[in-house]
Structure prediction request, 216 residues.
Amino acid sequence: MLLVLLGPPGSGKGSQSERLVDEFDMQQVSTGEMLRAEVRAGTDIGKQVASLMDEGKQAPDELMVRLLEQRLAKITDQTGIILDGFPRTLNQAQKLDEMLPRLGRRVDAAIEMQLPEAVSVGRITGRFACAKCGAGYHEQFKPTAKPGICDVCGSTEFTRRSDDSESVVNARLDAYRQQTEPVIPHYRTVGVLVPVDADRSFDAVYADIRAIVQGL
Ligand SMILES: [Zn+2]
Prediction:
């Protein structure tokens, strides 16, 4: 089984994926995480991607597809896969359609996480994480129990992702509107699109996604 999660930044694709992974023993393949790993490792690809990400731009399709195919080819059993952050463009969706049959797979469902843009901006710009243990927080929705102190490890050092500032979020929203939204009619035509209202609590959204997965 292979799921695609589509939605603007802040729609909860990553955290919903994590919950699916826990419950259904699926494997989450996040292209954003794959790219950040390249950046951390300081590879040539990573250096190229780092400057793009700082500007809120995305890596070229060819690069993403190559990295993704390498990664998916390593999953040789029937483990369910969730693609998080991919495809981001119609071109990527078409390349994915070409690539998956080579791996004996197809897109079984494309879940569209629908979220108003103003909500998207508010959700993202408030995010921060513990610099020591990586625990994730949000100024409004998930603050630390004691101001300035990590609940998990007691650290007082926090970080923000460089692509979470408001100007960068707006650039990401523009990119989503222009590049990713055309993917939605593509999956509607293929007959695998399932819209979900993501402007609700995490648990309510998850209940819908869970039902979709169980129905596949
Ligand atoms: Zn911590």
